[in-house]
Amino acid sequence: MNVLELNGLVRSFPGTLAVDRVSLSLRAGEIHGLVGGNGAGKSTLIRMIAGLITPDTGTICSNGVRMDVWDTNSAERAGIVTVHQEGEFFPTLSVAENTAHASGFPRTRGGLIDWATLHAQCQALLQGCPEQAHPQRLASSLSNSARQLIRLAAALHQKPQLLILDEPTAALSHHESEWLFQKIRQLKSDGGTVLYISHRLEEVLGNCDRVSVLRDGRLIATTPAADWTTAALITAMAASSSDETTNMTTSDATQTGHNALLPADETQFTEGPTPPGRNSAEAAIVITWPNSRRPEGVDKLPVARGQIVAIYGLIGSGRSSFAEKIMQLRERDGLSISINNQELTGDTPRRMLREGISLLPEDRLTQSVFATHTIRANVVLSSLYQTGICGLINTAVERRASHRVIHDFNVRCSGTEQTMQTLSGGNQQKLLLGRCLLGEPRLLILDEPTRGVDAAARLDLYQAIRDTASCGAAVLMLTSDLDEALEQADSVAVFRNGQLQQIFSAAPQQRSAVTAAAFGTNRGSDQAAPLQHPDSTDTAKSSATRTETTPSAADTSGRTPIGVNQRFLNRSEFILAVAVCGLILQLKTSASGFQLFSVLHAAAPWCVLSLAAMVVIIAGGIDISIGSILAVAAAAAANVLQQPLPAAISLPLALVTAIVTGACCGLINGWTAVRFHIHPIVVTLGTLTIFRGLVILMLGRNAITGIAPELHFLSLHEASGFRTGIVVAAGVVIAAAVWLRRTQTGRQLYAVGSSANAAFQCGLPVRRIRILSFVISGALAGLTGIMQLSSSMQMQGTLGNGWELTAIAAAVIGGVSIDGGRGTVIGVILGCILLRLSGTALVHWGIPDHHLQLFTGAMLFLAVAVGGSRRGGEHRHG
Amino acid sequence: MDKPRTLSRTRQTPAKNMSQSVFRGSEFFSAGRLVPILLLICSAGIIASQVHRPVILLKTWLPWIDVGCLAIAMTPVIMMGGIDLSVASQVALHSVVFGLCLQAGWPLFPAISCTLCVAVFCGFVNGGLVARGRPSLLVTLATMALYRGFAMSFAGAEPVRLATPVSDPDHLPVQYIAFAGLAFFAWLLVHRTTAGRWILAVGENRTAARISGVPDRRLDVLAWTTCGLTAGLVAVMNVLQHNVAIPDSALGAELQAIACVIVGGTLITGGRGGMTGTLLGIAVVSTLDIALQFLSTRFPLISVESRMIVTGILLISVAVSTQNFAGKRSA
Predict the structure, then answer these.
(1) pLDDT digits (tens, 9 = 90+) for A408-463
(2) How far is CA A666 from the centre of its chain?
(3) b/e sequence A238-274, b meaning 16+ C-beta within 10 Å
């Protein structure tokens, strides 16, 4: 019986055919290995199985039924669970909650979330797992391997029919991997199927029943694992992709003969080094690793001027982080780099650039291209300080420089003022390479320079790289394409597990040796002739040490016990609570006539309004129109109250009117922001003025006074002196707390604010939740409006003017993170009460009224300056 | 905005069509600009038809010059993807500081330089915190309250009146000259210097900018400090004009300034926009407002409130059109 049958799946991306007529059947109760080099199409294949992308042609049969529509939902129904290599996480949520958003929350009989059960479930799910994270611990405090283990444990716990594991052991230690193998064997004996994708061939052969090999998007073979040996697998994967590209590289490219970016006529560019020739023996640049952390392999990487060194390694082998370390984009860990025996000391990317190191990063979209800017702006960015006079831009020089790049690299475009995003990937990459070269680097680091680039542009790029080298620059080319490494470079350095393993001369016959070194089997390396450190081929030594070295450094870093996320009060709330209690005590004892309830009474509408601000911020938005919404709702309610209706009808009607009006205003905000992808601050800035205008239109010139006195009971019961307002606010606060804490929608609000990407992966309706947050916020603001109306008994056009900022301030003081995903109702209420109390205290202490604002400001400023809210990612885009 | 990256990446089909390159040269007359420009022409026409003594216009526009100066300083900040909510509070604080200095009998120039020092410091506090990774929205929200609080405390809730008037209120205001100068220098900075190019680059893609050697943190400090300095200039001019420093002056001016920048076509997420747009935005918003003001004296239907509604609708519609325009090009 086949759990899943794939028939002739084809999927192409612009420029590449990622998966080419793959037919694969997965039997019930087997562990199926899937291996292949980089770019063999494994990831595309599993993304199709998971329903994340649709195949161009081909069919998928699940349990013998042919599926016409195959998306994430149908995959879920078929019992398919995927653990992606780089799964998303909700950083501000607890471990238990992270596992629950994908698989569902346990409920109590009343339909609320049962946290105790959830934590127990999480505990049970982590039973026997090497990572014993506390269920209430924050996910952001976990190391990579811990996250991966929890993800795996959660997936296994779902007892899936088909479990897809993409490189599950990349971040795991030997011991942790063993646990995983034991678990998947157990799953198999329970009748489950596992599709196991890995670069670690021993693991695949040791655990799988059948193994399929993919190469260049095609399925090469599917046979029982017993028929394979590691060497045979390597041969099958590494067989030279005999396509036109490789042949063309040697013949055509040399004939096309583009002039590379020669430092030519411009005065600014004449200081280029003279070409020293290709086989210069002098190693100008040496990259050295600290000795202590190098139990094996090589600890020096020399790069001579004019030399191209390819750095080859599988995905996750630490190539990119190596490049980022050199460029000072991340902590260096003792890695040092010297040019001509002079160590480079620059501590920012800018300084490194000035020292002559230039990096072309791997991910073009997020790391290197300025998509909406012109070609000229993109090309000259790194070397602008060379073209300017008195800091002013010399457009002519810029144009000439970009024209030269366009011409030299054969970029197909209409001119220097075209925007980057209208160009193809290959042309973009050429221009970005041009940007690096304009700075005349001494060391050029290219991370996957030909990723997503079509064949013709690839040849141009290779030519440009070679020309750069022959002009005297040293080139490090980080690549996961073995052909590219062997064809283009002078030597190939192999990375594995974040370490440099061996350095080979680039020759076609080294193919199997390089593959073996990259995959971590040292079979076949005895035929290889490494250029350096012959000791490192000592197979026994390296394979013995390997298991000890695999646990990553991150593993040990985040083990601080933090499980405070779900406690009654966290630290900042505790401080707030202490401050509130202290103030109350102080006022009780010192100030005569201090009434706590009158302060709370005055704080009641503010608490509700702060909750309104908080709800939107938690979901990752912001609403600065709540002050105006409040006024609109109050005006609408006042209009209702002025109608000649009996109080029994008009009062509830007014209440409903206010809340519904508020919710409608919130809906307008949310829908506009989500539908048109406008930043919520712009939308609510617009609606802030619109709603305010509406208020005055509704009121006319004058304030409405003498509103039905019956309404006053909402604030204060005259006869008994009972402060109804406090009760109303308390009710709202409790409802909000229960909603945010104990219902699935409430938690989804947090999830969306924490990470929209992760929420999307979990299948949450991100847009709907965002709109919902605005609607709830509007409704709460409307409620505040009628509360305010009932206490002041008059309606003015300026009601609520500027209140939104105070409400947001209260939320921030209460510990709500402006990036979303974090904040509690208790904190917000405490922040709000503290603001009110301190106002009263200042009055009692005889401090003039006008100092109050300073006090509020200082408190907020402290909360921001000392508090830990940081810019979410460095990449704050879209 | 909430489009997950996984989706947008699969949708990235490189547009190879050369005929798409219609975005050459001036972006001034792009689609997002159409509505504002038409509005500008209409409202200018209305004003021209209503006003008989053009000199009066100088007075009418005066409050908008303050907003305009703030909008100009705000433009680089927004181009970097940040925001400065504290400018209006800064104007209040700096005018109080200036007023107190003058009240204490300081000569004009020491008073001005003292005020500008305070202004630079206030801006530097914002910029420093932003450069250390705090979200600018939050930082400037806090300093907005803080600076306003200082203004109130220093002034003691009462406007600071100058005993000896420094200038004649009916004099032709120097604000216009200062505004023109500021606009020119800001335009030069944004469009003709490397710093301007860097600002756009940081707003578009901070990671890429850093890798390309852009000193993004220094730019943060620079942009917010400039904002503070401009607020100081506005404050000085205001006090000199009116001979009084009001601690709760310029309430809501920061939002008006932001609205001008957005109407000018600068993306709130950064990376696109410029000074020309902002100048257009200032012109449109102020002209529209003043035109409606003139009309409201004629037609009772058009009142203050409808002016606000019109401005709000203009803001959102421009945001929708710029966003769609940008979206079409990037999706």
Answers:
(1) 888 888 888 888 877 877 888 888 988 888 888 888 999 888 876 777 778 888 88
(2) 28
(3) beeeeeebeeebeeebeeeeeebbebeeeebbeeeee
Beta-bridge partners for A7: A59
Place of tokens 């411009």: A266
Asked if B156 and A848 come within 8 Å (Cβ–Cβ), the reply is yes
Ordered alpha helix ranges (H), A65-114:
72-77, 95-103
Across the interface, do B207 and A874 touch by the CB < 8 Å criterion?
yes
Contact A750, A740 (CB under 8 A): yes
Cβ-based contacts of A14 with chain B (< 8 Å): 13-14
Interface with A, mutate which of B152, B305, B310 (most A CBs under 10 A): B305
Which one of B1, B201, B323 has the shortest CB-CB distance to A370?
Answer: B201
Distance from CA of B169 to the nearest CA of A (A): 29
**B142 interface with A at CB cutoff 8 Å:** yes
Tokens 């081929």 found at: A537
Position A273 scores a pLDDT of: 38
All residues of chain A having their beta carbon less than 8 Å from the beta carbon of residue B146 are 854, 857-858, 860-861
In total, chain B counts a number of residues equal to: 331
CA-nearest of A491, A479, A475 to A450 is A479
Task: Give the residue from A347, A437, A770, A854 with the most B CB atoms within 10 Å of its CB, the best one to mutate.
Answer: A854
What CA–CA distance (Å, rounded) separates A836 from A831?
9
Distance CA B281, CA B37 (A): 9
CA–CA distance, A318 with A495 (Å, rounded to integer): 7
**A682/B329 Cβ within 8 A:** no
Could you give the CA distance from residue A809 to residue A821 in angstroms, rounded to a whole number? 17
Taking phi over 0 as left and psi of -120 to 50 as alpha, with beta for the rest, B167 belongs to beta
Residue A238, SS3?
helix
SS3 B297: helix
Element (H, E) at A567: none
Angstrom distance (rounded) from CA B309 to CA B311: 5
Residue A175 has pLDDT above 50, yes or no: yes
Query: Cα–Cα distance between A136 and A119 in angstroms, integer?
Result: 7
Any A CB within 8 A of B164 CB: no
Which residues from A are below 8 Å from B139, CB to CB?
A: 864-865
C-alpha angle B290-B294-B298 in degrees, rounded to nearest 5: 155
Return the number of CB contacts < 8 Å for A and B. Answer: 324
Q: Count CB-CB contacts under 10 A for residue A66.
A: 11
Cβ pair B277, A658 in contact under 8 A: no
pTM comes to 0.80
Domains and CATH numbers, chain A: 2-238 (3.40.50.300), 283-364+426-547 (3.40.50.300), 596-865 (1.10.3470.10)
SS3 content of chain A, % helix, strand, coil (to 5): 50, 15, 35
* Low-confidence stretches of chain B (pLDDT beneath 70): 1-32, 165-172, 300-305, 323-331
Residue pair A346/A355 in contact by the 8 Å Cβ criterion: yes
Q: What is the pLDDT of residue B4?
A: 37
The structure tokens listed for A505 are: 């001369």
Distance from CA of A424 to the nearest CA of B (A): 5
Q: Around B149, how many Cα atoms within 13 Å sit in the side-chain half-sphere? A: 18
Which chain A positions have a beta carbon within 8 Å of B206's beta carbon? 874-877
Q: Which strand ranges, in their side-by-side order, compose the sheet holding A342-343?
A: A300-303, A285-288, A336-339, A342-343
Integer Cα distance of A261 and A408 in angstroms: 6
Q: If residue A691 lies in a helix (H) or strand (E), which one and from where to where?
A: helix A680-699
> Which SS3 state, helix, strand or coil, does residue A214 take?
strand
Q: Which residues in B lie closer than 8 A to residue A683 (C-beta atoms)?
A: 316, 319
Element (H, E) at B288: helix B275-298
